[in-house]
């Protein structure tokens, strides 16, 4: 049972915006100061999209943005494109010095 | 260019042992942790554990503690994930990932996974 809960699926039309939430369900999860987000298209390895809540690695489009409020972190994809169709996962450290991934969200572009 | 290259797919029988590898290049291998992540067919990502290659200190998820062993040989920039006795339920894709970390005055904690290997598919079947 992951300590980070995400909606199982979300969908949107091209050009729309969607927001994926990541909620800490256990106090074992840290302050969320280092939450990160990963994109995994089918059959490929995950790719880092956001680190330290809201920072984008080089090469990640600025359509992807991250934020947090309390025990919930969010990934927003603005101007949804067909290539954004993938599974998305959040991740954080825990107070027991381990790491944990969220339950994952499947994003479908209609 | 930073790369993590994993060993090839494996097919094993229950009870057999196995070691898979992850070779890093293009960066200082001892400056980052290596984590291992399991993905069972059609399921999500599960963090298994990590190693600090500079001193081989390891930390495991309670879900995997005692069933797998993570090690590293910094002289050849390679990390390993091994099982002494495989189960059918170990069939999955396994990824290694370079993990950044940050330290306070008392401990170090893992942050994001910025580079990933291509994955090693392990199939355990009789």
Features:
heterodimer; A: 110 residues; mainly beta; six-stranded mixed beta sheet; B: 126 residues; seven-stranded mixed beta sheet; four-stranded antiparallel beta sheet; 56% strand; globular
Assess the beta-strand content of chain A as a share of residues: over 45%
Shape estimate of chain A: globular
**Biggest sheet statistics of chain B:** 7 strands, mixed
Radius of gyration of chain A: 13 Å
The portion of residues forming beta strands of chain B comes to over 45%
Q: In which range does the helix fraction of chain A lie?
A: under 10%
Number of strands of chain A: 10
SSE arrangement of chain B, N to C? EEEEEEEEEEE
Number of strands of chain B: 11
Question: Structural class given helices, strands, pairing of chain B?
Answer: mainly beta
Furnish the topology, listing elements before pairings.
The complex is a heterodimer of chains A (110) and B (126).
Chain A: E1 4-5, E2 9-12, E3 18-24, E4 36-40, E5 47-50, E6 64-69, E7 72-77, E8 86-93, E9 99-101, E10 105-109
Parallel strand pairs in A: 2-10
Antiparallel strand pairs in A: 1-3, 3-7, 4-5, 4-8, 6-7, 8-9, 8-10
Chain B: E1 3-6, E2 10-12, E3 18-25, E4 33-39, E5 45-52, E6 57-60, E7 69-73, E8 78-83, E9 92-103, E10 108-116, E11 120-124
Parallel strand pairs in B: 2-11
Antiparallel strand pairs in B: 1-3, 3-8, 4-5, 4-9, 5-6, 7-8, 9-10, 9-11
């Amino acid at each position: 049972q992951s300590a980070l809960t995400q909606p199982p699926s979300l969908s949107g039309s091209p050009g729309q915006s969607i927001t994926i939430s990541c909620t800490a369900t256990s106090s074992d999860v840290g302050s969320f100061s280092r939450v990160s987000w990963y994109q995994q298209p089918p059959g490929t390895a995950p790719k880092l999209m956001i680190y330290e809540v809201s920072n984008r690695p080089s090469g990640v489009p600025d359509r992807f943005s991250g934020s947090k409020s309390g025990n919930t972190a969010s990934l927003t994809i603005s101007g949804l494109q067909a290539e954004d169709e993938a599974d998305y996962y959040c991740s954080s450290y825990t107070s027991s010095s381990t790491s944990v991934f969220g339950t994952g969200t499947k994003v479908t572009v209609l | 260019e930073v790369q993590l290259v994993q060993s090839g797919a494996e097919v094993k029988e229950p009870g057999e042992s196995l070691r898979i590898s992850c070779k890093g290049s293009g960066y200082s291998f001892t400056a980052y942790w290596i984590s291992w992540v399991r993905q069972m067919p059609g399921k999500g990502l599960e963090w298994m554990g990590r190693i600090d290659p500079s001193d081989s200190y390891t930390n495991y998820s309670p879900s995997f503690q005692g069933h797998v062993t993570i090690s590293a040989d910094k002289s050849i920039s390679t990390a390993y994930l091994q099982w002494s006795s495989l189960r059918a339920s170990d069939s999955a894709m396994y990824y290694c990932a370079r993990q950044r970390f940050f330290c306070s005055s008392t401990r170090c904690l893992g942050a994001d996974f910025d580079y990933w290997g291509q994955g090693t598919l392990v199939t355990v079947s009789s």
